[in-house]
Amino acid sequence: MNSERLEDQVYLLREAVRELSDKLVNTEWSTRLLSLLCLETGITSVQRDSIVSGFIRLSESDENLEVSALPKYRKVVEDVLAGSQTLVDNKLVIDLLVATAEYSYHRLYELTDYLECGPDYDSLFDQTKK
After folding, report:
1. Other C-beta atoms within 10 Å of 101: how many?
2. How many angstroms separate the CA atoms of 90 and 121, rounded?
3. What pLDDT does residue 106 have?
4. What φ, ψ does residue 66 adopt, rounded to 5°?
5. Chain Cα centroid distance, residue 47
6. In a structure prediction context, what are the per-residue pLDDT tens digits for the chain, which is 130 residues long?
7. pLDDT of residue 37
8. Would the CA dihedral through 109, 114, 117, 121 be positive or negative?
9. CA 107 to chain centre
10. Got the DSSP string for the chain?
11. What's the CA gap between 74 and 122, in Å, rounded?
């Protein structure tokens, strides 16, 4: 199979997964699938596993799973993705936290309870500076 055909097949596969995700999770603010989020943002499986491990370590060692803990989780993402082309913004950090809590580690639900803010992701991080 030539590389152009392979790229097309990968593209179609991504689109199929996205369509299935849209059917299963039918609102814009609903939890995202962790692997699909990584696929869409260019995060590799190795980076995903490092981020999830970092989130788990933090949640197990931190008694304070509130909005004030968000910068620590952002630092995990920034450290893992340093040198990559993936833009780390507040939305990505929160999407990764919510997806990780939903599919991998339930202790993070304590933190994600505070994250239902809709599109205003920056305001959550602003709360951590008070």
Report:
1. 22
2. 6
3. 60
4. -125, 180
5. 11
6. 788 888 888 888 888 887 877 777 655 545 567 888 888 898 999 999 999 999 988 888 877 677 888 899 999 999 999 999 899 999 999 989 888 887 665 666 666 666 665 556 677 677 666 5
7. 87
8. negative
9. 16
10. --HHHHHHHHHHHHHHHHHHHHHHS-STTSPPPHHHHHHHHT--HHHHHHHHHHHHHHHHH-S--SGGGHHHHHHHHHHHHTTSS----HHHHHHHHHHHHHHT-GGGHHHHTT---TT-HHHHHHHTT-
11. 12
Q: Which burial class, exposed, middle or buried, applies to 105 when counting CB atoms under 10 A from its CB (0-12, 13-18, 19+)? A: middle
The length of the chain is 130
Residue where the block lists tokens 């304070």: 64
Tell me how far apart the alpha carbons of residues 108 and 57 are, in angstroms, rounded to a whole number: 11
Q: Which of 129, 127, 125 is nearest to 89 (CA)?
A: 125
* pTM (2 d.p.): 0.71
Output the pLDDT for position 72: 92
Structure tokens at 29: 């603010």
For residue 29, the model assigns a pLDDT of 47
As a whole number of angstroms, the distance between CA 21 and CA 40 comes to: 12
Tokens found for residue 104: 């991998």
